[in-house]
């Protein structure tokens, strides 16, 4: 059968299709009893109509996939085919089941070689996703095992099929369709002499499955990011800075943003209100406003119903030392803090800033987030530790003075998005402040990066600003795509790490 002559159509099975279905099953299963009786098919259609799928070429029925609903816990352990179909030939259907059991998949021998079986498998997977079911399970025959039974144990046979050293028409196909062998089952179908009665228990896991209690919690699957490419300007008071901040938060809230993001040290122009001859004195002066900003930003987060990633500000710790700290002000009124861990030579030399010693992923109502301040994103270990904790969105508030400094942040942020399969948002400041030491020039082009795979833009850039221009920008992030790319992407960086060769651990106690 040539490709040019095919006219394919996928739909649900009806009882009127039974004569053609019987012809197909009699042909394929002549060695194990042929077609199922019509009354079995009729009961299966009545009990679970969406699970019975056929593939037609014009008027000819050329493929089928029959399924039932089952309890995952019951059938994820070893079982027999008779547990699904009893002596009265009644197929078990659990109306409140949380998994699909694949009873059968058949392709007309005349149509093999065109990968048509894959269409039936994909239709079954899509049904599993749409019904929010946990998995697709199946008992898979190994019909070529009888050729090797004298030389290989069944477990050895499975290993060699998985390595593609042996071809098995059923198992090889199932493995190529993302099914995993959970275990070997004995006496699954005793009359199956070619398989010597053995079968594999196969599972395809629905990575988008949400248990009922999680569904009721309305777990976020999308997040809208709104960010401010902030212009450094002279201010006469704290109130002026807060007025400008609130203006942007109001605007971002009007667009129903889940997050408002600001750059690193966005309130640093307030150093212009004190003597500039001593940089250490100026930065300590700046730290005295941090509590006021935290209080006001908490108020804005609640009032405007938006989570605020407040770039970073200088804070004085209980030990009197200075830290560069990013704050998360959640719209439920709670607050979290991430101190900058790696301090630049300029921060250490001019401002005597200390590095923090904790790293965390923070829960929000719009995803799990991490915050790495500027220089921190240039250390890949931090992003990987956050990825191990399930980060969805990594926020990187930054301040860079030149383009080459900016490009270090940008390129490293893009690498973090690829290697950790997460979204990364970088947000910087622009403008010139010649009157304030260390803040005289800025360079920024803020952006949102994604993993690099088919579900995302071809250049893995979701959005970016005009360089060196004050503006706001938005991106809608589909968090469910992260689950797909982490489990079924073209490459799966997190899954494929060679943990047998290397590991990464956080040394500080309490993590």
Question: Cα distance, first to last residue?
Answer: 61 Å
Q: Count all strands and give the number.
A: 22
Major sheet characteristics: 9 strands, mixed
What's the architecture of the largest domain, going by CATH? 4-Layer Sandwich
Reading off the top of the CATH hierarchy, the class of the largest domain is best stated as Alpha Beta
Summarize the structure.
This protein is α/β, with parallel strands linked by helices. It is 28% helix and 23% strand.
Fold and architecture overview:
The chain is an alpha/beta fold. The mean pLDDT is 91. The N and C termini lie far apart (61 Å). Strands 8, 9, 10, 11, 12, 13, 14, 19 and 22 form a 9-stranded mixed sheet that branches. It folds into 2 domains: 3-213, Gcn5-related N-acetyltransferase (GNAT) (Aminopeptidase); 220-488, Carbon-nitrogen hydrolase (Nitrilase/N-carbamoyl-D-aminoacid amidohydrolase, 4-Layer Sandwich). The longest helix has 18 residues, at 403-420. The chain contains 14 helices and 22 strands. Helix 12 runs parallel beside helix 13 (403-420). It has helices spanning 18-28, 38-47, 72-75, 116-130, 154-162, 171-176, 212-216, 238-254, 279-287, 290-303, 345-351, 380-388, 403-420, 480-488; strands spanning 8-12, 53-57, 60-70, 99-107, 135-141, 180-185, 199-205, 222-231, 259-261, 307-309, 313-316, 322-329, 335-339, 353-354, 362-364, 367-371, 393-397, 423-427, 429-430, 447-449, 461-464, 471-478. It is elongated.
């Amino acid at each position: 059968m040539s490709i040019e002559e095919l006219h394919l159509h996928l739909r649900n099975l009806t009882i009127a299709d039974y004569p053609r279905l019987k012809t197909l099953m009699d042909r394929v299963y002549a060695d194990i009893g042929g077609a199922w009786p019509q009354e079995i098919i009729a009961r299966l259609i009545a009990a679970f109509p969406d699970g019975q799928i056929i593939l037609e070429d014009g008027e000819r029925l050329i493929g089928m996939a029959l399924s039932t609903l089952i309890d995952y816990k019951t059938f994820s352990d070893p079982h027999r085919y008779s547990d699904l179909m009893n002596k009265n030939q009644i197929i078990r259907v659990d109306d409140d089941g949380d998994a699909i059991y694949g009873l059968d998949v058949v392709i007309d021998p005349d149509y093999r070689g065109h990968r048509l079986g894959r269409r039936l498998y994909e239709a079954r997977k899509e049904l599993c996703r749409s019904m929010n079911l946990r998995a697709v399970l199946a008992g898979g025959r190994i019909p070529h095992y009888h050729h090797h039974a004298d030389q290989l144990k069944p477990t050895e046979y499975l290993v060699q099929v998985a390595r593609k050293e042996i071809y098995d028409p059923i198992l090889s196909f199932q493995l190529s369709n993302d099914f995993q062998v959970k275990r070997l089952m004995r006496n699954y179908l005793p009359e199956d002499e070619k398989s010597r009665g053995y079968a594999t228990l196969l599972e395809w896991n629905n990575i988008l499955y949400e248990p009922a209690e999680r569904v009721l919690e309305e777990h976020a699957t999308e997040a809208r990011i709104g960010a401010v490419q902030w212009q450094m300007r002279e201010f006469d008071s704290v109130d002026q800075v807060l007025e400008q901040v609130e203006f942007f938060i109001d605007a971002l809230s009007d667009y129903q943003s889940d997050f408002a993001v600001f750059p690193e040290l966005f309130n640093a122009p307030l150093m212009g209100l004190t003597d500039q001859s001593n940089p250490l004195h100026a930065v300590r002066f700046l730290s005295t406003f941090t509590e006021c900003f935290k209080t006001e930003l908490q108020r804005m987060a609640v009032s405007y119903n938006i989570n605020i990633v407040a770039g970073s500000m200088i804070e004085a710790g209980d030990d009197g030392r200075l830290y560069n700290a990013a704050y998360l002000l959640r719209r439920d009124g709670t607050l979290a803090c991430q101190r900058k861990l790696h301090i630049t030579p300029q921060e250490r030399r001019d401002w005597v800033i200390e590095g923090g010693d904790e790293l965390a992923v923070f829960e929000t109502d719009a995803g799990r987030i991490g915050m790495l301040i500027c220089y921190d994103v240039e250390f890949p270990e931090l992003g990987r530790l956050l990825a191990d904790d399930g980060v969805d969105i990594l926020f990187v508030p930054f301040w860079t003075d030149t383009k080459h400094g900016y490009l270090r942040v940008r390129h490293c942020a893009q690498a973090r998005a690829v290697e950790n399969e997460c979204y990364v948002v970088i947000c910087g400041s622009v403008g010139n402040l010649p009157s304030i030491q260390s803040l005289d020039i800025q360079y920024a082009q803020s952006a949102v990066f994604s993993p690099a795979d088919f579900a995302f833009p071809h250049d893995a850039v979701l959005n970016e600003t005009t360089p060196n221009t004050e503006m706001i920008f938005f991106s809608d992030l589909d968090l469910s795509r992260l689950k797909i790319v982490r489990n079924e992407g073209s490459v799966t960086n997190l899954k494929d790490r060679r943990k047998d060769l290397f590991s990464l651990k956080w040394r500080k106690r309490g993590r």
